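Something for you to look into today, if you have time. Just paste the record in under my message, thanks.
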Amino acid sequence: MGFPEGFLWGGATAANQFEGAFLEDGKGWSTADTARYTKLDDPTKFSLLQPMTTADVAFAQADQDGIYPKRYGIDFYHRYQEDIALFAEMGFKTFRLSISWPRIFPNGDELEPNEAGLQFYDKVFDECLKYGIEPLVTLSHYEFPLGLALKHNGWESRETIAHFERYARVVFNRYKDKVKYWLTFNEINIIGMTGYLSGGILADKTDHLLQAQYQAAHHQFLGSALAVKACHEIIPDAKIGNMLARMEAYPETSNPNDVMESIYADHTNLFYSDVQIRGYYPAYMDKFFKKHQIVIQKEAGDDQLLREGTVDFMSFSYYMSSIASSDTEGEETAGNLLGSKKNPYLKSSDWGWQIDPVGLRVTLHKLYDRYQVPLFIVENGLGAKDVVEEDGSIHDDYRIDYMRDHIQEMALAIEEGVDLMGYTPWGCIDLISASTSEMSKRYGFIYVDQDDEGNGTLARSKKDSFEWYKKVIATNGADIE
C-alpha cells in the first residue's frame, strides 16, 4: 500500500474554534461568538441544530455571566508562530485553516476591508510558507458576520451574495502569491439543518424556516460559483473546492425499503455537492421541494452561473457512518450533526459517534464514482477525553488506533483507483468543540492546557500521537504502526 508522491498530509482547524482575540484589531461579531458553553451530563444529547432568534443573539451579546469559549479559542491569534512550528515539526505538507470573514469585514457589508485583519493572515501564511507548508484556506467556516444576520437575515437575502463575492475577491487578491488551495463553504449541507450557524438565519425573521434555509443554500451555491470564477481569474494556478459533511448511511437490512431509505439519505446529503460539482439542481429534489412547499427563487442567469462555477475538487469531513431504516424503532446513538440508529458491528467514541474506518473507504468510492474529480479528506479524527500523566505525558493510543485504521482504508481506496489529494485530520491541536463549545472533547496531536471553563496556562505539549503522525508523514503513509 502507498500514497502518491505529493500527497498533502496535514491538519485542520477553524478560526472560530482556535483563534480567539474576540473583537481585537477591528474584528466584528460572528455567529460563533454567541455560542455559550453549557455543561452537559450526557454530551450525546446536545444538538448543534438549535435555531436562534434575535432575542437569543441580544442575550448573548449582553450576557456578563455566561462562558463563550469561541471568543477566546486557544489564542492562536497570539501564538501562531509556536503552533505552526509544531506543525512543521510533525512534517505538515498543508495546514487547513479558515479566514474569519468578520475579521476582514467586521459587519460583513463594508466597502473597504479591515487592514489589521488582512495583516494577521499575511503573517500566518508567511509563517506556514517559511516551513514549506501549503495553506489550505476555507473562506467561510461557521464565522458568519453577525451584522449580516441582523441586517439581512444572513444568506436568506440575495444581497449577501455580493458581500461574499467582495470578501472573496479581496482575500484572493491579497493572498494570491501565498495560497494555492481554497475551499468555499465548510460543510455547506449544514445550511439545510440549521440556518444560523453557517447562514446567519434568525428563526423569528422568517415564517418558513425550511424555505429560508434552502433559499439560503441557493444563494450560497451562487456565492460559491462566483468565488470559483474569481479564484480562477485572480489565481490561475490555484485550485478551489467545495466541502461537505459526509453522512454515509447504510441500509439497516436487505429489506428493499431500507435500501431506498439509504438512497434518500444520499439525496439529502449529496444534493449540495451535486450542484457544486455537476453544476445543476438534481431532479430528485423536485419531490422534496414540493412535499415541503419550498419554492427556490431564482433570477435570470443563476443556472448558467452554477454551470460555469463548478469546483475543481471535492473535500469533505468524515467521522462516522450511520444507519438508514424504514423502521423508526431501535437504539439511537449520537453523531456528527445528526444521530443515527446504533450499528451493532461498530464501536463508539466517548461521545457516542460510531467508529467505522471501512465506511471511509466506502465513501471514497461512492464519491469518486459519482463525481470523477479529485477528493480531499479535510476532517477526520477522534474526539476523546485525554488524561495527562504525572510526568506530563499523554498516551492516546486510542487516537492512533482510530487514525491508523482510517489511513489503511484510504490507502486501499487509492490502490483501487480513487484519486485522493490529501488528508488533514480535524483539530490537529486541541481546540473548542464546534457542537458543544467544550474543550474536553479533544482531537489534537498537541495538548492545550485549558479546561471547559477557559482555565489553564494554554501551554502546548505533545501527545504520543504527535510522534506517530510525524512518522506517518515522513514515510508518506508507509509506516503507520
